[in-house]
Design a protein that fits this description.
Helices cover about 35% and strands about 30% of the residues. It contains four helices and seven strands, in the order αβββββαβαβα. It has a single domain, classed as Trna Endonuclease, Chain: A, domain 1 (3-Layer(aba) Sandwich). β4 and β5 form a beta hairpin. The strands form two sheets. A five-stranded mixed beta sheet has the order 1-4-5-6-7, sandwiched between helices. Strands 2-3 form a two-stranded antiparallel ribbon. The protein is of the alpha/beta class.
């Protein structure tokens, strides 16, 4: 199976499982706006976008949508170069969408555990996940769904914290803690 086929299968399954959100494989997401020139009352720019492997997004009123979670996918193996490249893509997307959550998802791994190179070089990932095969075991599916739901909630909370920071009605946080959560293979 090709990686793009697997990403589409996972995206379709997630789309059916996440009510109120849309999930699509191959959707493009802007990571930069390059300024070409400034006018008196306008700016000319070029939008730069990467194609995402899997994008979880929320549709708003009319034709607007908001990205919530991006999932990079790899099957069989992941190299140090992959880890560095995808982690950098995560950073560029988060620069434009500061509330975006980003992870890497490995499939058809057989031996299953996440490789150490992801821990070392995946600094900009919010989550990492590995499945033994293309189709999940029940536990693997439950873990994926749980992570995605938590990441959607984190995205919404970050958005509120960032964009409503001057509102008198905002939540007034006094602490932020990002714990490390792991699940071991059996």
């Amino acid at each position: 199976m090709k990686e793009t086929e697997w990403a589409k299968l996972v995206a379709d399954k997630l789309d059916r499982a996440l009510s109120g959100f849309n999930v699509k494989a191959g959707k493009r997401l802007i990571y930069a706006n390059e300024i070409v020139e400034y006018g008196e009352n306008s700016t000319s720019y070029n939008e730069m976008a990467y194609e995402t492997d899997i994008l979880v997004y929320e549709k708003n009123k009319e034709n607007f949508w908001k990205p919530r979670v991006v999932i990079e996918t790899k099957i069989d193996s992941v190299t140090t170069h992959d880890a560095i490249t995808y982690s950098q893509k995560s950073a560029t997307h988060k620069y434009v969408h500061p509330y975006l959550r980003y992870g890497i998802f490995l499939g058809h791994r057989g031996h299953h555990p996440l490789p150490g190179r992801l821990f070392r070089h995946g600094a900009h990932f919010d989550f990492m996940l590995s499945w033994k095969d293309y189709e999940p075991e029940d536990t693997e599916w439950k873990i994926l769904l749980s992570i995605i739901k938590k990441e959607i909630t984190a995205s919404k909370k970050l958005e509120e914290m960032i964009f409503n920071s001057r509102s008198k009605q905002r939540e007034k946080y006094i602490a932020l803690h990002k714990p490390l959560v792991t699940t071991c293979a059996k």
